[in-house]
Amino acid sequence: MKKILFFVLPVFCFSCSQTPKNIDIILEASEKNRSELEKVIEHYKREKNDEKLKAAYFLIENMAYRFSLDGPDVKKYDPLFNILDSLKKEYKVIPTLAPIVKQKWDSLSKAYNWNSKLKSDIKTDYKNISAQYLINNIDLSYKLWKTSFWNKDLRFEQFCEYLLPYRIGSENLQPWRDFLYKKFQPFRDTVKFKNRHELASKLNFVLKDSISLNRIVRAYPYDMDVYQMEKAGRGACRHLVYYTAMVMRANGIPVGIDESPLWGDLDRGHHWNTVLMENGKNFPFDAAASNFGGLNKYPYRFCKVYRKTFAIQPLEVNQSDLPNNLLNYLSQRIDVTKEYTQTFNLSIPLTYSFNKQKKYAVICTFDRKKWAAQYYGEIENNKAYFNNMGANLVYLVMYYDSGNYYPATDPFILHKNGKITYISLLKDKKQEMLLLRKNPSYPSNDNNAKSLLDGKIQGSNRPDFSDAITLYTIKSVPIKFEEVSLKNTKPFRYVRYVPPKAAANLAELEFYTNSSSTKVKGKAIGFPEIPAEIGDSYQDAFDGKLETFFLGNKDSLSYSWAGLDFGKPKKINRIKYAPRSDTNFIIIGNLYELFYWNKDHWASMGKQIATDQKIVFKEVPSKGLYILRNLSGGKEERTFTFENGKQIWW
Question: Which residues are in the Transglutaminase-like domain (predicted)?
């Protein structure tokens, strides 16, 4: 793949409005497939349609990075899609972490050795694409551009990027445009709309019933073609976004793809779609979401946002200067961070030297367990310059050399107003740190906890709870495993939790008698009845796992509850309960280790087993950047500073 990337990098940097100067280089590289590409060019020369000819030139001259992945290891995943298709037909709803999906995934992974290092063959488009495929793609997209009233002001350059491309990622080349145009014919025949925004909104709403995120299937390592996505119906946000772009473009809607490869304060990134509005601006929206738009409501902070382009972008750097992830991103995307957040151009003095002369430095944010490059900048007079950087983040400038990173500065905070504050550790000034979490609690986590407010825990001696007595009503937002003592002395055979609304979001519910430290066991009872293989049932509230939960009915008109049948009346004195959560609070019995950043590495402050739902570390160097790691389980962790006795997350 690297050979393809840098073989053509200095050459193909043209927009579709220009007369191409280097088509011959692609034709030469296409070898036996040259005749297919020449057929396309000759076809439109004979047709005497200058716009279609320019469109053909645009696609061909920008084919250098376009490819599909093939080979035995890729085909090992083929059975997955038939199984997902069967599950989709069998079950009306499949939660994002449904045990049945994980079971099937694990079974296939073992059978086909998915966990081994996968190898794939690169099938470059210019050596394999057929003339008929390109001609069909150009003709269909051109027709929708010229005959759709909502595209009457769409410029040719916009058409080239937002409607014309014959592929989205590295998926198998399939006749997706014709297939999806026919599939959504009934939608087009009945939908009423005034502009692109309305049309895209209504089509996106239709898609939410057929595709969804799935945390298990998102591990599929390749881009899905249209037929794979039709079968799977689920995947990572990238899979959903790419499919949505196909659907929209196949139906004449000029749609793009924006992405944050890595949030500035999170260990993962995000993809989403944009619709090109009549005023030339892009309106962002999440694929197949109930609400159209609303990216500004995400709690995470943008560092960099890129827009995927079909045109190759100029990048005059040597392969060894930058990590591959930056090279691949920047050669096929443009920086649109300013459209999403306040940005600043930075001039950063390099306080740590390197043993080699470097032309570039990289600016990093913290990924899971490591610093990850977000962008690069030129070095001049011992300063590194970085453009359009998102704010309210912690950065670290580093040198990149042969796959390794070396600090060039101390970590620093880029504040919302553009001011920079360096995080300078004071080893001689010690402090005591009381810590409550290893990762921030985001709004989705907080909302799950809030949904328990006014929930009731009841006792009864009748299985229908006709004589139910409320033992406890939740009146404060639970942020961890909560415990309450009861004054009631009456024994009950049946107990249950009844949510205030439809969604329960209850992870665990435990009952105790007297001063016993052993929870009372019983048979799980509740409503609705959900197959164990689907998950999120009332049984999950009593399985001893904080990671699973009882979801309940999301429909506010429905009724749900989770309870236990003790077999005989028991006198309950204490109750413990926990909301559905990220489990990033301190868990009793787990082993934790605190680290602080010390110039070029994370230094340990020692390990502790938690005996409470908070943990205290003493004699910690102050004014530093820290990480708390749970060695017993869980992957999420986030850097923080410690100010006025509180963790400030970065």
Answer: 200-287
